[in-house]
Amino acid sequence: MEEIYAKFVSQKISKTRWRPLPPGSLQTAETFATGSWDNEENYVSLWSIGDFGNLDSDGGFEGDHQLLCDIRHHGDVMDLQFFDQERIVTASSTGCVTVFLHHPNNQTLSVNQQWTTAHYHAGPGSPSYSSAPCTGVVCNNPEIVTVGEDGRINLFRADHKEAVRTIDNADSSTLHSVTFLRTPEILTVNSIGQLKIWDFRQQGNEPSQILSLTGDRVPLHCVDRHPNQQHVVATGGQDGMLSIWDVRQGTMPVSLLKAHEAEMWEVHFHPSNPDHLFTCSEDGSLWHWDASTDVPEKSSLFHQGGRSSTFLSHSISNQANVHQSVISSWLSTDPAKDRIEITSLLPSRSLSVNSLDVLGPCLVCGTDAEAIYVTRHLFS
Amino acid sequence: MVPSCPFIYIIRKDVDVYSQILRKLFNESHGIFLGLQRIDEELTGKSRKSQLVRVSKNYRSVIRACMEEMHQVAIAAKDPASGRQFSSQVSILSAMELIWNLCEILFIEVAPAGHLLLHLLDWVRLHVCEVDSLSADVLGSENPSNHGSFWNLVTILVLQGRLDEARQMLSKEADASPASAGICRIMGDLMRTMPILSPGNTQTLTELELKWQHWHEECERYLQDSTFATNPHLESLLKIMLGDEAALLEQKELLSNWYHFLVTRLLYSNPTVKPIDLHYYAQSSLDLFLGGESSPEPLDNILLAAFEFDIHQVIKECSIALSNWWFVAHLTDLLDHCKLLQSHNLYFGSNMREFLLLEYASGLFAHPSLWQLGVDYFDYCPKLGRVSLELHIERIPLNTEQKALKVLRICEQRQMTEQVRSICKILAMKAVRNNRLGSALSWSIRAKDAAFATLVSDRFLRDYCERGCFSDLDLIDNLGPAMMLSDRLTFLGKYREFHHMYGEKRFADAASLLLSLMTSRIAPRSFWMTLLTDALPLLEQKQVIFSAEQTYELMQCLEDLTSRRPVRGESDIQQLQDEDIETTKVEMLRLALARNLARAIIREGSLEGS
Q1: CA angle B27, B33, B39 (to 5 degrees)
Q2: Could you list the residue ranges forming a coiled coil in this record (chain B) (predicted)?
Q3: Do B441 and A192 touch (CB under 8 A)?
Q4: Residue B256: which pLDDT band, with cuts at 50, 70 and 90?
């Protein structure tokens, strides 16, 4: 693991996200957005890692990420997602959900749309109005789903002023994170250790399924869905434990892996190499989990009725092989038997790593030590 | 290029700490500080020293990086006032680096005689850098030797001991004017042959001294012979190389400060100076240079104190001159690791290092964002660190749960259970007020706060009594082992279990659970009526569910409940109505219990199979 560049940016970073590449593009990731927190003035910023043709002897500075533009953000940036190539949605600690628009020609950001009272404890009409932090946001063009400390789920649509659907009191505790399973299903995790699946096609305010660990109700902080297999979900908890779930079967996780020593803030499957998983934590470390196993070549000789027919059997056994590989290596992984390689990616322990994102061979993460780390060679 | 400036400005605190660029200084130095604390205590001798020197260089490079960036900002500043502000910040940082560098040479590197001078030369070259721009200027011109500043450049190269470069310049002059080629060559030879200690050299100090004496005498002879009389520039160069103070003082402008004067003087009069002799030269250099015209600046006093190896004076003067504790805290900590401060204790108990670190960390806590850095500094203050941290950490404003979680993690890692409880209690109260009972419960579970868990459960039960159904079933149904935290919570969980059993028509189990809830006394008294009312449908079932024993116990509970009811005196209509309902309920219960008892006795009394 070489060439990870660090840059101190004078703000504690709460979220980092790569800008998605246009589908079918051959480029590597170039731009990422960050959100800051805990400042008197917080900013949403866009950075570029640009193009370095030749690395010279002091390669350190060549790899630096440069600030493109930024914009003031009210409240802490609790979550951040790219809605499409130009728009960024952020969740704020003031309960507001904002859509920012990036103008590439003059490199500025502007506010495109805002829902200021997306999350609150007591309603806007009541005398004791108090806002609640919005803790998670996820987008699937044109829909935006947000969750917050008020236990509320909102479904917004870009360019609609009001929420399309709101589930009040969806949860009696704080909802920490949300992800799409299949549209129109979403999955939320909360601070009493439950995963809840909600189906927007159904009326009513009840989840369609609830999964949880028996044993200690450890709050879950992050969730991510396997990019290819929509029933495989990974969650990270307050005790640093990584759990893999199969939402089709049962209410228990498939595997529990003891990982970090403190809260796991984010978990991500690699979008194009889903055998690789990344987690970051309050204990200041960022781990790369590599579950890719060598599938032994199955014999292509397939004896049928005493006659071995290589040509025919080849296609049949191929089908068998294909069926085998569809089963996710995460689900079939037995931690005792198959080895998952875990690598720590940051050079030294620092303050909490709050966020990470991966796209292709590039990884970006942000820490409470006010530093952003970028690497373009994840799999070297 | 960074201007070298002998002045230190005192700037108000409100500008300092919050500057964007200085934040990088704080963050990066925090990382270096932690690395330093974790250096293996076992290491001694050379390896330890080299590690400490490396740490010192890291600190200095961080300061320099900050300086560079601030310089860029100062240049790019749109209005002159902020440009000036940035420039003065740059000069403060430059002064800090100057002092730190000297402290590194004298206290950490502890260079012996001979090497000492080499380090001091490097130090001066680093900080008086007009040379490079001047050199670029002159060399870039058509005819370098005719450039107006040519001789200035050569002189300053000699003053800085950069004799090879000076020789190169002289050769240009030799090429340009053949008349003086001869004497330029002689001068060049003198420069080449000056003995100097090079790092890889194995000569002893005495050898070097001897050689240097010879060389010095050779220079003297040239002076006596007036070899260079034709060229006044070369003549003054010769005098400089002989260490003639008057000649050196003539070059005041080029020297620009007294410590440059000091180092040059040492170079050409006593290159094998010992560290302990430095302060004689330092004091006299300062006096000579200032010449009674001006008084020493704070920076001068600090440097002088350093030359006198008076570390405490250095730190004291720096604390007074600088408005931020960053510099003195980190420098003192580093010097403490070099075991240079052990012997002194301040009057109020903690030693100087701890005092400064505490001050610095407290300052960080005043910042909305940098408090996280302060935590680690408190950790390494053995006497008062923990107490200070306990006080500070409770006062951090918590506006989101995520921030609260981070603060709690910090407290838990240090076993500060009191702080954990108090923070969780605050958060739980907030949650209850916002009607987020699930959150309230999860906070009380984290703090293992049984009392609060009881409070939350009471709320749930009250809601049930009022509305007839539970809110937040998802929480209560899935309590798990957290149920054991408080009796009330256990009751709540078990009660829901009862509902489940009833729903699944496992009546016998439900019945015994209900009974155990009452007899084990974990049900709050106020709830008994509800429990008994829940028992009614079970009593009214076709089959007998409660045994005779159980029915007796139920009757016992009912009696317990009714006997305790106070006799009411004056009561209004509403209370009378309530009482009516109560009496009806009690009567119904009595009837049901009696009927059940009858059926139970009969069933138990009859023979099996009949």
Answers
A1: 145
A2: none
A3: yes
A4: confident
A149 contacts B445? CB cut-off 8 A:
no
DSSP B263-292: HHHHHHH-TT--GGGHHHHHHHHHHHHHTT
d(CA A16, CA A354): 9
Which one of A8, A132, A263 has the shortest CB-CB distance to B24? Answer: A8
Pick A262's closest partner by Cβ from B28, B35, B409: B409
Which chain A positions have a beta carbon within 8 Å of B478's beta carbon? 192, 194, 210, 212, 217
Question: Among A339, A379, A344, A380, which residue's Cα sits nearest to residue A365?
Answer: A344
Nearest partner of B528 among B589, B472, B478, B470, judged by Cα:
B589
- 3-class secondary structure, B539: helix
In whole angstroms, give the CA distance from residue B520 to residue B535: 16
Q: Which of B406, B496, B374, B427 has its CA nearest to residue A37?
A: B406
- For an interface test with A, the pick among B63, B369, B433, B469 (most A C-beta atoms closer than 10 Å) comes out as B369
By the 8 A CB rule, do A157 and A146 touch?
A: no
Residue A291's CB: how many other CB atoms inside 10 A? 20
Answer yes or no: is pLDDT of A298 > 70: no
Q: What is the pLDDT of residues B285-311, one digit of tens each?
A: 888 888 877 888 889 999 999 999 888
- Under an 8 Å CB criterion, which residues of B touch A? 20-21, 23-24, 27-28, 30-31, 35, 368-369, 372-373, 399-403, 405-406, 409, 413, 434-439, 441-442, 445, 471-472, 474-475, 478-482
> DSSP string of A27-69?
PPP-EEEEEEESSSSEEEEEEE----S---SSHHHHT--EEEE
Q: How far is A330 from chain B (nearest CA, A)?
A: 27
Q: Are A175 and A135 in contact (CB under 8 A)?
A: yes
Residue/partner pairs of B33-38 with CB below 8 Å, 24 or more apart: B33/B330, B33/B333, B33/B376, B33/B377, B33/B380, B34/B376, B35/A348, B36/B333, B36/B334, B36/B337, B37/B380
Q: Give the model confidence (pLDDT) of B23-58 as tens digits.
A: 999 999 999 999 999 887 667 778 888 899 999 999
Nearest residue of A to residue B375, measured between CA atoms: A351
Residue A70 forms contact with B (CB below 8 Å): no
Position B387 pLDDT exceeds 90: yes
* Residue of chain A whose Cα is closest to the Cα of B434: A121
Residues 6+ apart with CB under 8 A from B552: B597
CA distance A172 to B477: 12
CATH number of the domain at A9-293+330-375, out of 3.40.250.10, 1.10.760.10, 2.130.10.10, 3.30.470.10?
2.130.10.10
Q: Of A9, A191, A262, which has the smallest distance from its Cβ to B439's Cβ?
A: A191
Q: Within its chain, how far is the Cα of B202 from the centroid? A: 44
Domain boundaries, chain B: 123-273, 342-396, 400-494, 505-563+579-609
- Could you tell me the two tokens for B145? 């030797």
Phi, psi of A375 (to 5 degrees): -135, 145
Contact B275, B111 (CB under 8 A): yes
Contact across the interface for A149 and B439, Cβ inside 8 Å? yes
**In one letter, which amino acid is A227?**
P
Query: Taking all residues of chain A, what is their mean pLDDT, rounded to a whole number?
Result: 82
Average the pLDDT over B560-573 and give the result. Answer: 65
Cα angle for residues A19, A20, A21 (degrees, 5° grid):
115
Burial, A271: exposed, middle or buried (Cβ in 10 Å; 0-12, 13-18, 19+)? middle
Within an 8 Å CB–CB cutoff, is residue A370 touching chain B?
A: yes
Q: Which of A226, A220, A225, A371 is nearest to A286 (CA)?
A: A371
ipTM > 0.95 for the complex: no
A102: enclosing H helix or E strand: strand A97-103
